[in-house]
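Long-time lurker. I teach an intro course on protein structure, and each term I like to show students one example going from raw sequence to a predicted 3D structure in token notation. This year I'd like something fresh instead of my usual example. Would anyone be willing to generate the tokens for the chain below so I can use it in lecture? Attribution to the forum is fine with me.
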Amino acid sequence: MKRILCTLALLLCSAASAHARSVQAATAQPGFQIVESVPEATIYGQPGVPRTQAVWLQMIHGAQHRIDIAAFYIAEKPNGPLRPVLDALAARARAGVKVRILIDQTFLKDSTPSLDRLRKVPGIQVRVLPVNKLTGGVLHAKYMVIDGRSVFVGSQNWDWRALTQIHEIGARIVDPRFAQTFDAVFDFDWRLAADPDLPKATRRAMRPPTFAPATEQDPVLLHTAQGETVTAFPAFSPPALVPHWVSTEQPALVRMIERAQHVFRLQVMTLSAIRHYGPRGWWPAIDNALRDAAARGVQVRIIVADWALREPMQSYLKSLAALPGITVKFSRLPLSPQGFIPFARVEHAKYAVADDRSVYIGTGNWEWSYFNNTVDASVFVHGSSPARTLAAIFDRDWNGPYVTTLQPGTNYKPPRIR
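-- Reply from a regular --
Happy to contribute to a lecture. Here you go:
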């Protein structure tokens, strides 16, 4: 009888444990989630997609040990939407969380007021990465890693305008191996900021990893809020400033475009095969892939910002628009109710959707420098629910009131930016 009772007790405990795990899984944070910044007084805002400030605050408030941030610059204003985020960072640091901020050197003066305030908080470290001296580029990445467990990556700069005045797309990924991979890249650049010796860093980049990194060849499995299991991997630029064993962005993007069969959607602020930064010349990699996709019958739909209308980029975009199968539109957002805001009211998102199955969300524009001498990062995901969500965001813009179809025979005036 005792043996029977013990067996029953074990079965009940096992059932209770399984039920607890199923409840926890049902209530846990999705492994992959798209995040959107919505300019005020616009039609944007996909239902069910969370907003950037809320996601950042949730991630920061939940940090227990470490927060690592790579940022192009930091720009806040009194009582602006970025202030609660920076206050939350300071509060977690005072509570014992280690905060490391890696910032670009080129726009350091714009970040100085915010950094001076953050540097005064015990537990916050700031380093400046001189990418311009190392490769001729900038630290353009925008990502955050929490406790080696979750990552935010996307087009959103640490700028108050990126929260309420600019259209942005990012992603939150919850997975230890994915986060470890991001942290390994962060650590590589963090050390390089302290000792900007590129030959030494190149030798360090050849060292094998101490864990199984998430790569294009070995992606992670993630669960979406829709209950779908998807695969994902991070990718980074430039090859010279990352460990050699991580996936790099340009080859992964080319392969994504090459695999498209029906529709390829791309929204990016600027797009050009003409090199504006670095060595002058032509950048064929992405350009060839887009033209080849159209030639084999894929509908290529491209939305750029009106900031892309400057020459020679406007002429380049017209060369794409002249091809059968490629349609290019530019977006011009209406003024804010507050009036003109410098460096705002723009499509700043950088994402792509291939058919109904694959997505890319990144931090760089689609020009040579962003993949070859500038620090950027991205996430590639294979799964139908992320593709449906991003396609819906794209189509809202594609069919909305802010876009104009680019006509090769028409000249367009660039907007005022500052």
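Some talking points for your students: Confidence is low (pLDDT under 50) at residues 1-27. The chain has one domain: 29-405.
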